[in-house]
Amino acid sequence: MTSPAKPATTVQDRWFAVASGVVLLLAALPRLWAAWFDHGVFWPDEIYQALEQGHRLAFGYGTVPWEFVRGARSWVFPGMVAGLLRFGALLGLDSGRSLVLLVKTIMALTSLTGVYLAMRLARSLAGNVAALITGLFAGFFAASILLGSRCLAETVSGPVVMGVVLLAARPGRNAQLAAGSLAGLSIYLRYQNGLIVLGLLAILVTDRRVREATCFAAACGVVGVLGGLLDWATWGKPFHAFKMYLWFNLFKSADKFGAYPFGYYADVAWNISGPALVVIVLGLMLGARLAPKLVALVVGYVLIHSVVPHKEFRFLMPVMPLAFALSGAGLAEGLRRVRGGRAIALSLAAGSAAWMGIATTQLTWDKLGFPSDRGARSPWHSGEGINRLLWSLGRREDVCGVIVSGESFGWIGGYSYFHRDVNMFAGETAGEAEHASANYLIARADAAAPASYREVAQEREFALLRRDGTCAAPPEGYRRALPY
């Protein structure tokens, strides 16, 4: 007797489970590769606004940027990083290398979680094909891969925002309390996430879910108050970090630092995505028929950031998983009634993912919207030799001071990579007093070494040099702080 045929839905679900698993695995590979093998610095914030402050909180020493002198940042995200570092220390991780790898791996997995949650939203809107298209878009977007393993608030914000959207879509008080709590947390990760939170609250109200909107707002408000109390405990005044951050960005730097024209984000998106951007935008336009309010939220977020003079493409990352989910759902639904539409949609998405994957390897600072002296250089492995030498130096028992030259001090891994409570000096300002206070020097391998130093190690274009003797006390006025 032949066994009865299995229901089509079971076969489809198994096919989807396998296909989505493959997509997530493929998306995980470049992120984990970046976490384990790329230890350059893309932007100083990944070190000095998060990883270095987490290290300072966890172990008691580190470099302090002006934001953590003036109190222009909340301790929420650095506190999370500090928790990870202390957990790693409890597990026996005792080197800068092992601790950094732990944090970067968690960041990569967090980025992958954003891909998964985006796929879930797309599936709820337009089915299995929409989820797979979304996974291809979100998994292989060049900026998502480049930033996915870096300790940036934007990296964490995307998955958190997706969690808020999914919870807010559920009926019931408990779901909205959870959504509101997570929304409040997202604001303290990055204050601009408040735009998304307000948009979601407006959607709940206009959908006539007033009681649920009240629960959402109440939970968000409670977390907001707790964040204000944290500022009080750490900075001496409630909501001090938010007010200082707002003052600096509105009145001090918005039109001076990193000011770019309105079309900056569109230009960068095209530079790093090419024709794939056309497919993604087409899907987003079609997605307006399925979830017009969510599409309006994404567009509004981008437009507001386009009006603000200070721009960096990473500022859009909190909303990108949502944009990819809406695009994937729109493309799948828009082509559903076309003959062979599902195959066409998947082919477009696969082609776009392949294009973006190749484009990821061809990124330059110019393409990413940073017209500077870095220009046509790749952001991959930028300054990595210094950080790998800091790892190595941190294991040497005789180190009593180190000078780091050949790169601006804000673009190195700091004490997070060094993981030794030993004085570190910037090479561009190092004089006789600093050299007397250090017995190791990191410099470009092709630079002439001072007479008293000899090379002991080399990583990429940088060399580690050592001189004999001990270290004098640091110069008067020395502080472990970044210049502003």
| Main sheet makeup | 5 strands, mixed
Number of domains: 2
How many H/I helices?
20
Strand order of the largest sheet: 2-1-3-5-4
Spans where pLDDT lies below 50 across 5 or more residues: 1-7
Overall body shape: globular
How many E strands?
Answer: 5
List SSEs in N-to-C order: HHHHHHHHHHHHHHHHHHEHEHEEE
N-to-C span? 80 Å
Oligomerization: single chain
Strand fraction band? under 5%
Relevant terms:
about 475 residues, mainly alpha, 5 strands, about 60% helix, about 5% strand, disordered N terminus
Description:
The protein has helices spanning 8-37, 45-59, 67-70, 76-90, 96-126, 128-140, 142-147, 153-168, 173-189, 194-206, 210-235, 240-252, 264-273, 275-287, 292-307, 320-334, 341-361, 384-393, 414-418, 432-436, and strands at residues 402-404, 424-426, 440-444, 453-459, 462-467. It contains 20 helices and five strands. Mean pLDDT is 93; it is low at 1-7. 61% of the residues lie in helices and 5% in strands. Helix 6 (128-140) packs across helix 16 (320-334), helix 10 (194-206) runs antiparallel to helix 11 and helix 14 (275-287) packs across helix 16 (320-334). With 484 residues, it is mainly alpha-helical. The chain folds into two domains: 8-361, no CATH class; 384-467.
Can you describe this structure in just a few lines?
The chain is mainly alpha-helical and 484 residues long. The protein has helices spanning 8-37, 45-59, 67-70, 76-90, 96-126, 128-140, 142-147, 153-168, 173-189, 194-206, 210-235, 240-252, 264-273, 275-287, 292-307, 320-334, 341-361, 384-393, 414-418, 432-436; strands at 402-404, 424-426, 440-444, 453-459, 462-467.
